[in-house]
Each structure stands twice: as structure tokens, then as C-alpha cells.
Amino acid sequence: ERSNLAGVRHILLVLSGKGGVGKSTISTELALSLRHSGKKVGILDVDLCGPSIPRMFRVQDNDVHQCDSGWVPVFVDQDKSISLMSIGFLLEKPGDAVVWRGPKKNALIKQFVADVAWGDLDFLIVDTPPGTSDEHISTVEALRPYKPLGAILVTTPQAVSVGDVRRELTFCRKTGLRVLGIVENMSGFVCPHCSECTNIFSKGGGEELAKHAGVPFLGCVPLDPQLSQSLEEGRDFIQEFPKSPAFPALARIAQQILDGTSQRSS
Amino acid sequence: SSSSRDESLRDKRAWIQSRGLPKQKPIEGVKQVVVLASGKGGVGKSTTAVNIALALAANDSTKEVGLLDADIYGPSIPKMMNLKGNPELTPKNLMRPLKNYGIACMSMGFLVEETAPVVWRGLMVMSAVEKLLRQVDWGQLDYLVIDMPPGTGDVQLSVSQNIPISGAVIISTPQDVALLDARKGAEMFRKVHVPVLGLIQNMSVFQCPKCKHETHIFGADGVRDLAETLGLDVIGDVPLHVNIREACDSGQPVVISQPQSDAAKAYLKIAKEIVRRLPVPPA
């Protein structure tokens, strides 16, 4: 029997360790960028307590349907080039809290990995919650037989974030997960009025960590109110705001991922 | 006599079921526990917890304040309070909290190496949280501020099942995805019968230091709207100031290092509000 992940060419995880650094944002923008390069992308949201992905595509009210091989992922539009799976679709009301202990979370994650009928995908992006806990251990264990491409680590520049991400790097090393690179998010804010750049959350912490740990640095993404707003409204930032401050960095990250995969197949 | 047999069967079943749950018992010497949570990561729980703990002490120098960092996976308190090192053990084999700026602190960060990840499943986390609560020589505290990790899982459940919590404060940034999770956080406290004192709106607005132009980077007023929906009050509003982050990164939180700043004043005000809303402490 063909496994549900047999048609997925590349699996990559988006990790951090620290909360609120932009994992879901980067997952979403990466998916949109890859879609614009003609790829079919799926996003698996294993953040059971705080599922943000459905909202970022404005499909939070959609339902998940069953088919012969399992759950049918939610398509973002008629195009069917981006599909999603998240616990957000399974909750009765958006305000429902998932207050579960580890074993129950593990059981659902195993189902999310094995029982979603993704079909043929170029990329499956797995968005994770903060920390190094049940969700992460279960996800990595369940994905191991499918040989994930690796993990992208997201951090903000400040010391408390970099500290947590350093721990996440060790987690990757311990579990044999390849680190594709580090993204330094919320790196500087350019005032739309006077163009003065203020490093609200500091600067350079992510780049330094990448150098120190010997992993690729994928780039700095600045704070961009248009990006935050696009996510609130479920819009396609990559398509609609190519002149916005965060666009070049996000496009570059996607390009580096694509270059990495084409290198591998050649 | 069949009814008395049914009743004794019911009682026995209830007794067996309750055996598995931890007994809720107050921590010796600690008068009131205030919990800072959010549901969402990265909204500023630790930053706010540290500054509120300092503000509670600054507003009333007769009060003893403790700070517990319950974020097992990403402990930020040691860095922000400029504390390092392994805790000593008292003759009774309790851990002595590390102190700075007059606040007694305990964190997972003191027990593991800075670069070591804590890759634990839920059960181990439960026992670690119990140790951080009960095996610490807190002494006599008027307030114990607990900084929670993001999420609504094992740690939150363990803390609320283990000790009575006087009140919870939920922090959020204005953006939708944060508010979604804040709402779940509030719902979680309702489920475990912990009173929510109110919401704090963090990172509400950024003022360019050069031209003073204000930008709502993460949206505006979202927290106020949520508060209204949930029937809660907004007990504080903290803007995005570079100095808040800089101060915490250097281990000198803004309430201590820049007490005259707008940011510090915001935290002092929040601390006053919290005290006002807590029930009257036991004598």
C-alpha cells in the first residue's frame, strides 16, 4: 500500500526553540514563494496549542474531509497549488483550547504524518511550535523513514532568542536532522516616514549564531508592517507587495532552498 | 440496602479516580501566586514577568517578591535577571533561589547548561515543574510571579493542578494570530478554574526615535477588542521601545535601570493594577 507521503519530493521542517520569532510567517511566505516558482507545496502545522497557519491563508473556517486514504488537506484556492493540514481545521470553534498532555499530542501528530492524503507535492513544509518537546520528538520520529531534506531555524536577533535557537541546533544534531540554515527575522525596522532604521530586536544575532555553529545563513528579514497585515488578512504578500522591505529577503530564502534541492538531484 | 451498596461503589470509584491527580497544595511561605501566560510564543511574557516582579517590589518595598521561570524548554529569566550558576542546597535539601535586585529567582536555566536543549516528553516535564515549585526554599514571599511557557499543555496543567493560583494575567500583541492563542490561554484558565485578572497589550505601537512617527507594526487595538469579547479588562499597554529589549538583553531590566522611562512607568502601573485586582492576601 502506497504511503501518503510517497508523492512528496522534499520535506522540510521550520523550527525555532523560541516562540514568536516568525516560524509560521516564514513557513507561509516560503510556501507562497515556492508556489510562484511553479511548485506544488503543502504545509503541515503541528503546533497543536497555537495553530496559526489556517488564519494566515484565510481558510480558518474550512473543514477537513475524509477520503479512502485518510484526511484530505485543505486547499488554499482553486489553483490547488498550496494545501494545508492543521488542528485549527478540526476544532469546533476557533476559541477552543487544546489542553492536552504529551501522549495525546503524540497520537495526533502520528496521524497527521501518516493519514493525510497529500498526493504529489514538490515540498512539504512542517511548521512546529516553540520548544523541544513532545511535538518535536514525535514529528522527527514519525518523519524519519521519509528522509526529510532538513530544517530551517528561525530566530530574532536578540540574545534570548539566539539562546533558545542554539539549543534547537543541538536538538537537530542529536536527532540527526540536517540544518539547511538560519533565518534572522524581525531584523531591523525602517520607519516608513523618515527611513531611519531602528534595531528594535537588535541585529546580527542570527548571523553570528550561523557562523559560530557552521551552518548556512539564509538571510535577514526586516520588520515589515505590510507583511504583518498581509498575514492578518490572508493575502499573498509575495504576489501583492514585491516592493515591500521584506520581499527581497523572503524571495532569496526560497531561492536558496530551490538551489539546494536542484544541486542535490543533479 | 442495594442503594447503600451503589453509593459505596460510587464513592470507591471516585476515590480511585482521584488518586492519580496531584493534590493542590499551597507552597509554604508563599502568600499569593500570579501567573503570566499567553498561549502565543514571543509576545513578551518573560520580559513582562521580570519587569512586573521588579515593579511589585519597587511599588512597595515591604513586599518580598519571587520569580519562577516555568519555561522548561526556553528559560529566558536567567539572562534577563543577569543570574548564572547552580543553586545551592539548604540543609533540608531544598534549592536556594538565586537573588538579584532583591528578587528570588528559580529557573530551569540554572539547572542545565546554557547550550543544552531539554528534549523531554511530558511526564518528565511534570516532575521538573513539581521540583521547581516545591523543592525550592522560597522563604516568606508576598508574591510569587510565575513566567509560563507558550502553549496550553503539560506545564500549564501541572502548575494549575499543583498549587492554588491567585490570578492569571494574559499577555498578547495586537496581531490576530497572537490574539487567537491568547483566547485559548484564557479558555484554558477557565477550564482549570484560575481567575484571569486581565490582559496586557504588549508591543502596541512603535515610535521612530528620529522622527517620532508612530507605526503600529503588529496591528492596533486587537487586545482591547479581545478583552471586550471575553469580558476582561486591559490592565496595561506597553509600547515597543528599543530600550526594553536592550535592557533585558543586558540583564538590567528597564524598571531597575531606567525607572523614569515611559516603559518603566507602564510596568509600575501594571503592577499596581495587579495588586488592586488580587484578592486580599491571607494575614
From TrEMBL, chain A:
It is found in: Cytoplasm, Cytoskeleton, Cilium axoneme; Cytoplasm, Cytoskeleton, Microtubule organizing center, Centrosome, Centriole. InterPro entries: Mrp-like_CS, Mrp/NBP35_ATP-bd, NUBP2/Cfd1_eukaryotes, P-loop_NTPase, YlxH/NBP35. GO terms for molecular function: 4 iron, 4 sulfur cluster binding; ATP binding; ATP-dependent FeS chaperone activity; metal ion binding. It comes from the Eukaryota. Its main location: cytoplasm. The keyword ATP-binding applies. The keyword Iron-sulfur applies. Keywords: 4Fe-4S, ATP-binding, Cytoplasm, Iron, Iron-sulfur, Metal-binding, Nucleotide-binding. GO terms for cellular component: axoneme; centriole; cytosol; nucleus. One of its GO terms (biological process) is iron-sulfur cluster assembly. Heterotetramer of 2 NUBP1 and 2 NUBP2 chains. Interacts with KIFC1. Interacts with NUBP1. Component of the cytosolic iron-sulfur (Fe/S) protein assembly (CIA) machinery. Required for maturation of extramitochondrial Fe-S proteins. The NUBP1-NUBP2 heterotetramer forms a Fe-S scaffold complex, mediating the de novo assembly of an Fe-S cluster and its transfer to target apoproteins. Negatively regulates cilium formation and structure. HAMAP family: Mrp_NBP35, NUBP2. PANTHER family: CYTOSOLIC FE-S CLUSTER ASSEMBLY FACTOR NUBP2, NUCLEOTIDE-BINDING PROTEIN NBP35 YEAST -RELATED. This is NUBP2 factor. It comes from Smutsornis africanus.
From TrEMBL, chain B:
Pfam families: ParA. GO terms for molecular function: 4 iron, 4 sulfur cluster binding; ATP binding; ATP-dependent FeS chaperone activity; metal ion binding. Its cofactor is [4Fe-4S] cluster. It is found in: Mitochondrion. It comes from the Eukaryota. Keywords: 4Fe-4S, ATP-binding, Iron, Iron-sulfur, Metal-binding, Mitochondrion, Nucleotide-binding, Transit peptide. CDD domains: Mrp_NBP35 (cd02037). GO terms for biological process: iron-sulfur cluster assembly; mitochondrial respiratory chain complex I assembly. One of its GO terms (cellular component) is mitochondrial matrix. PANTHER family: IRON-SULFUR PROTEIN NUBPL. Belongs to the Mrp/NBP35 ATP-binding proteins family. Iron-sulfur cluster transfer protein involved in the assembly of the mitochondrial membrane respiratory chain NADH dehydrogenase (Complex I). May deliver one or more Fe-S clusters to complex I subunits. This is Iron-sulfur cluster transfer protein NUBPL. It comes from Smutsornis africanus (Double-banded courser).
